[in-house]
Amino acid sequence: MNTSAALDPGELTAYRRFSRSEWAALRASTPLSLSADDIEGLRGVAEQFSLTEVADIMLPLSRLLNLQVAAARGLGVVQDTFLGRPVVAPPYIIGIAGSVAVGKSTFARVLRAALSRWPDHPRVELITTDGFLHPTTVLESRGLMQRKGFPESYDLRRMIAFLSAVKAGEAEVSAPVYSHLTYDIVPDRAQVVRRPDILIFEGLNVLQPSAGAPLLASDFFDFSVYVDAEEDDIAEWYRQRFLLLQRTAFQRPESYFHHFRDLPEGEARAMASKIWDAINLPNLRENILPTRERARLVLRKGADHRVQEVRLRRM
């Protein structure tokens, strides 16, 4: 079963669809301000992202977002003027969602770099929802270690409080820091956000509803992106990443997955498939994929990691 491919008829009419070439043409005269070295430094483990991808996909998106930010600031001026308050532009918040291993983290880092090159909003911050996972001790006490990444594994109250404070323009707002090496929250460390022009908020669960919750993370978003691909492709990307990590990060004694370091390649690949089938695939089908139609923009990737189609929600 592959549930990532099809959109229902109602969803199709809600979006304008662009081929890769049609979307690339919307770049207009937006200059390419990132170099190959920049991309190399931003690319994640086992993820591909080229200057062509920046030119064809990222630059049209950064142009659209630059226009959106300007329009949002104009609306803010209208409201502040109406209320007789000093004009203060709140941060423009962009949510980025998608499956484990689909490439959303690299996409978010490259988007941050591209947006920060625009002179009107040079202060762009990136926060991932990993920092809002409950610590391992809490997950273990609640029997949730095999549900890591599912909605119940996150401190949603703290996440909402963070977004609310950022949107309210507080001078400094702190987010917890997560280590993929130790697979846990890092004690006594925080990432501090200081009134950015734009905040990119990336993670599995950023578009998920929460039954009975008065506020959702997406309530604070001005724009949202869902990075999409076929299930089979994402599963293969996950296996490739696992094998690469086994040769690198898993070799370090402090790695949570250090015990996998010496598995023969066939066994390592089988273990990656087992983890995908038991945890990541059910989470994708039950919690992540159903949020796709809530995104303003859907980027559909092919097996080669290149975006093949863009869907932009009609206003």
Automatic annotation (TrEMBL):
Q: Where does ATP bind?
A: G98, S99, V100, A101, V102, G103, K104, S105
Q: Which Gene3D superfamilies match?
A: P-loop containing nucleotide triphosphate hydrolases
- The reaction(s) this protein catalyses: (R)-pantothenate + ATP = (R)-4'-phosphopantothenate + ADP + H(+)
> Which pathway does this polypeptide act in?
Cofactor biosynthesis; coenzyme A biosynthesis; CoA from (R)-pantothenate: step 1/5
Q: Name one Pfam family in it.
A: PRK
Q: Among its keywords, does the record have Oxidoreductase? A: no
- PANTHER family named in the record: URIDINE KINASE
Instruction: Identify the residues that the record assigns to the Phosphoribulokinase/uridine kinase domain, covering every copy.
Output: 93-232
Primary subcellular site in the record, as a coarse category: cytoplasm
Keywords noted in UniProt:
ATP-binding, Coenzyme A biosynthesis, Cytoplasm, Kinase, Nucleotide-binding, Transferase
* MF GO annotations: pantothenate kinase activity
Q: What is its EC number?
A: 2.7.1.33
- Which family does the UniProt entry place this protein in? Belongs to the prokaryotic pantothenate kinase family.
Enzyme class, top EC level, equals transferase
> Where in or outside the cell is it found?
Cytoplasm
Q: Tell me the protein's name.
A: Pantothenate kinase
Question: Which InterPro entries does this entry report, sorted A to Z?
Answer: P-loop_NTPase (IPR027417), PanK (IPR004566), PRK/URK (IPR006083)
